[in-house]
Amino acid sequence: MDLHFTPEQEQFRRELRAWLDANLERSWTEETRDPNHDADSLVELRRVWQRKLNAARYIGMGWSEEWGGRGASEVEEAILQEELTRADAPQVPNFLGISLLGPALIHHGTEEQRRRFIPKMLNCEEIWCQGFSEPSSGSDLASLRTRAEPDGDDFRITGQKVWTTFGPWADWIFVLARTDMDDRYGGISFFLVPIDQDGVEMRPIRQITGESEFGEVFFDGALAKREHLVGELGEGWRIAMTVLGYERGAATLAKPAEYDVQLDGLVAGLRASGKLDRPDVREQLGRLVIENEVMRSNGLRTLAQLASGHAPGPESSIEKIFWSEYAQRLSDSALDLLGPEAQLATRAQKTGSDVDWAYQYLWSRAGTIYSGSSEIQRNIIAKRVLRMPTA
Ligand SMILES: Cc1cc2nc3c(=O)[nH]c(=O)nc-3n(C[C@H](O)[C@H](O)[C@H](O)COP(=O)(O)OP(=O)(O)OC[C@H]3O[C@@H](n4cnc5c(N)ncnc54)[C@H](O)[C@@H]3O)c2cc1C
Question: CA-CA distances (angstroms) from residue 368 to 283, 324, 376, 384?
Answer without folding.
Answer: 26, 5, 10, 20
